[in-house]
Design goal:
The complex is a heterodimer of chains A (124) and B (242).
Chain A (H helix, E strand, L loop, with lengths): L3 H23 L5 H19 L1 H10 L7 H44 L12
Helix pairs in contact in A: 1-2, 2-4, 3-4
Chain B lengths: L5 E7 L6 H11 L4 E6 L6 H7 L3 E4 L5 H15 L4 E4 L11 H9 L5 E5 L12 H18 L11 E4 H9 L7 H10 L4 E5 L14 H20 L11
Parallel strand pairs in B: 1-2, 1-4, 2-3, 5-7
Antiparallel strand pairs in B: 4-6, 5-6
Classes of the chains: A mainly alpha (124), B alpha/beta (242).
Chain lengths: 124, 242
């Protein structure tokens, strides 16, 4: 069975995670779109921490018999991997868009015909 | 009869030592074609040198890598309505005198993409070091296998395109180490590919962008790109004839 202290720490940590994410979204430092996976992580960890019988049952399913909280770590790790993978796709998209913007700027500057050549002279 | 409008696309990064000669040689060899130098955010005066010699210069605001730079040139060609484009490197390794031969298969309507190959029929005097030769050969075999046409040199940056080729590469061109994957993409998009024997010169100034650590990344990246490209579906182009 999961030690009670582990459950308490798990609940506190999950709640903290959820609160921090919500605060970041509230302060517009994190977009809802990117907060969702973090919130899902927090909620799942909260449920598994608080619902001690459930954690035991799941641990039994996956063959973890000696120490059920290991499942908590495994699930947390899995979610972190998901978040990272998601961010890799986001970075890839940003990279493509960034290059495309650079290309557009190069093409537009040529069309406009006045490439910026350093700081403008004060006489202008 | 009017000659089809042709543009030479020359990607350049910190090539002020070579770009002048490259632009000059293209203009001397092919007075009728426009020269577009894509300055990939050089820290030297590459752009100014090229512009002084009458080249159209596209200045990228930051370094995007060779593929992104080349693609900028193809996008320019597409938007400005050029019918043909030739790509040469800004370091002077491609001989502008061979542009005419490279355009040959396009003029005879035999291909939409022409690759200046160093190894057609095993000819040419280019003898790279063993490791590189092996790499070039393996990539060529792989692309031939996956693309369904025998290609001898997939790492060559000396290529010529007609309108269909320009359209394809303006839309779809890998951003780093692009040549091998681009060759496969062209084949899988149904473009006819032709190869012309060319000589490559030793680079005149600057250093090759391929160092040992990078070559490892190069190999792995290109292999992955080929694998993925052969799993993807590429829509057949309007001008595809293959």
């Amino acid at each position: 069975m999961t030690p009670v202290r582990v459950s308490i720490v798990g609940v506190l940590a999950s709640v903290l995670l959820i609160l921090v994410v919500l605060e970041l979204v509230r302060g517009r430092r994190l977009k809802e779109r990117y907060a969702l996976l973090w919130l899902a992580t927090g909620v799942v960890l909260l449920v598994l921490s608080a619902w001690r019988g459930g954690l035991n049952t799941i641990a039994g399913w996956v063959g973890v018999t000696s120490y059920p909280p290991a499942v908590l770590f495994a699930v947390a790790t899995l979610f972190i991997l998901l978040v990272l993978l998601h961010y890799s796709t986001v970075i890839s998209k940003l990279t493509d868009e960034n290059v495309e913007l650079a290309q557009r700027i190069a093409l537009l500057e040529e069309r406009v015909g006045r490439p910026p050549t350093g700081p403008r002279s004060p006489a202008g | 009869m009017t000659r089809p409008r042709t543009v030479a696309v020359v990607p350049a990064f910190d090539e002020s030592g070579a770009i002048g000669r490259v632009v000059g040689e293209i203009r001397a060899a092919q007075p009728g074609i426009d020269v577009v130098v894509v300055d990939d955010a050089s820290t030297d005066d590459t752009a100014a040198v090229a512009e002084a010699l009458g080249a159209i210069v596209l200045r990228l605001p930051f370094n995007v890598g060779i593929g992104g730079a080349v693609q900028t040139g193809f996008r320019y060609a597409l938007e400005e309505g050029y019918e043909r484009a030739v790509r040469l490197d800004g370091d002077g390794q491609h001989d502008a005198a061979e542009i005419g031969r490279l355009l040959g298969p396009l003029e005879r309507d035999e291909a939409e993409v022409v690759i200046g190959s160093r190894f057609v029929d095993g000819g040419g005097s280019y003898r790279p070091p063993f490791g590189r030769r092996l790499g070039i050969r393996v990539f060529a075999r792989l692309v031939s296998l996956l693309g369904g046409q025998r290609v001898t040199d997939t790492t060559s940056g000396f290529i010529a395109l007609d309108r269909a080729g320009i359209e394809l590469f303006a839309r779809e061109y890998p951003h780093d180490y692009p040549e091998v994957e681009a060759t496969l993409v062209a084949l899988r998009s149904g473009l006819r590919l032709s190869q012309v024997q060319v000589e490559m010169r030793e680079r005149e100034t600057g250093a090759s962008s391929i160092t040992f650590v990078r070559s490892l990344y190069y190999i792995v990246k290109v292999l992955l790109a080929l694998l993925v490209a052969s799993l993807r579906r590429y829509p057949r182009l309007e001008g595809a004839r293959r």
